[in-house]
Amino acid sequence: MTLVLGVILARYLVTGGSGFFGTLLVDHLLKDGHEVASIDLLPSALAHPRLNAVVGDIRDAAALDALFVQIRPEAVFHCAALLAHGSIDERELWSSNVEGTRTLAEAASRAGVKSLVYLSSNCLWGSGFDRPVTEADEPAPCELYGQSKWEGERILASYADRIAVTSIRCPTIIDEGRLGLLAILFEFIADNKRVWMVGKGDNRYQFIYAADLMDAMIRAATREVSGVFGIGSDDVGTMRETFDHVIAMSGSRSRTVPLPRLPMVTAMKLAHHLRISPLGPYHYRMIASSFVFDTSAIKAALDWQPTLSNGDMLWRAYRFYSANRSEIAARADVSTHRQAARMGIIRILKWVS
């Protein structure tokens, strides 16, 4: 770590550095003057004299050892994860997310890395809560991705006597460029279609602004003790209020329309079973449920505060989609959250909207 003009410059390794959030994090660290290495299965969209972007697999212990020797990072930001979307093989997902995390932890330990910040998930739970979720709530994932993130937390906890490990459990990360399943919502709004709510839309589902998450992760990288924290926005309106805000800001003629919860959830389960929908078990369990993290612990430990509401950050993401729709449609060989998810049977719902 070097002190230049009063600013501490550090060397960091970012796994998953070519993904939606990883790219934002790498770019932020570079702009702050740090030296950054990234490793990802896909090439980086960034180029910079202080960036060493490696196309590689975190399960490759020899490649990791060589990278750690080359860059000697003070801290690792572990953002790499395969998602349970599309045609991802379940064994590959588990191997990458779980065994990849184990291989990374072993390599970091051998290299004497002081701090590792792990991007965990609210997918550790497969049901909603009628109260804020705390760090004391026992995870109960309902599908493989959530199970893999929970197992990753437990693996890293076993290294806490050698590395200061901070696991940050985050909800959906939102900023300009966030697509994936959100692109389906954005297409409905852009094309002035009705936005169907499963239930009344009175559930509250927390998001996290990418810049706020980066701030927390960078603060966590300086900690000398391990910890687990939930993170998220403060201003969590209902889903209907959030969608209505984006519709109003965009000038769209869309409107939110409630649908009976039980028949819709049953239909989503069937569509998933038939492999004709992008929505999996987590989505159809949580789509009409409330989930909000109690963020008092991370605020106290990191002196951290969120800045944007759910509605404001979703508007930022929609505005980017609207301005770049043609380019987005032509994208290939990019990470899941940087391309629009395929609608599948939801296309029929759009036709009748």
Give a short summary of the structure.
With 353 residues, the chain is of the alpha/beta class.
Structural description of this entry:
The protein has 353 residues and is of the alpha/beta class. It has a domain at 2-175 and 206-235 and 290-308: NAD(P)-binding Rossmann-like Domain (Rossmann fold), CATH 3.40.50. The chain is built from 13 helices and 13 strands. The protein has helices spanning 20-31, 61-71, 90-110, 144-157, 182-190, 210-220, 239-250, 261-273, 281-286, 296-302, 310-323, 325-329, 346-351, and strands at residues 2-4, 7-9, 11-15, 35-40, 51-55, 75-78, 115-121, 164-170, 172-174, 195-198, 207-209, 227-230, 256-259. Strands 5-4-3-6-7-8-12 form a seven-stranded parallel sheet, with helices on both faces. It has a two-stranded antiparallel sheet with strand order 1-2. Helix 2 runs parallel beside helix 3, helix 3 packs parallel to helix 4 and helix 7 (239-250) crosses helix 11 (310-323). It is globular.
What descriptors fit this protein?
two-stranded antiparallel sheet; alpha/beta; Rossmann fold; 7-stranded parallel β-sheet; 353 residues; globular; 13 helices
